[in-house]
Amino acid sequence: MDDEITAIERNNTWELVDLPSGQQIIRVKWIYKTKLKENGEIDKYKARLVAKGHKQKKAGFKKCPHEHTLYVKAEDGKIIIEFDMSDLGLMHYFLGIEVKQVAAGTFISQKKYAQEILDIFGMKNCNGSNTPSEVGMKLEKDPRGKKIDSTYYKQIVGSLMDLTATRPDIMYAVSLISRYMEQPKEVHLLAAKRILRYLQGTIDFNVLCKQ
What we know:
This protein has five helices and ten strands. The protein has 211 residues and is an alpha+beta fold.
């Protein structure tokens, strides 16, 4: 909190004035967040002092046409407000994707998310598999097969779909089991669990994006 106040004062974020007649005070509040490392461990505790924006009025800041998350205040084409920026170093974690930058390129993975999936669906201590599906496997609707909880099955499929962003090796197997979400049978669940066991055996797999 002290660091946040210091940064606000250094950047001249506000100016203390008397409240104009007939105007209301825009109140502020503290927002607290725990920043995690890519392995899930606590990195730091962050605090931000923010204004309750729903009571603010439109000011002279304009959205940058090249970077839509950047707003600037300018007069005659010149930026009149500058802020100090912190160098956070190389990116390690972004939107749930773990990032590791090396000379050969950039490795991306979702190891932490894969571990969470295995834990959620009770496969944390399962035996690993070398392939995401059995060789020559052909899934069908299996109308006479044993019915299973479709909600549970959909949760597994959805979680695996989210993981395909960095695990293209499971894309085909996941697309197969996703065809039977309406009326899944036991054989479909076994196929889904085979993918989970494959994740267990390949938990450290990454995707390398070459320079």
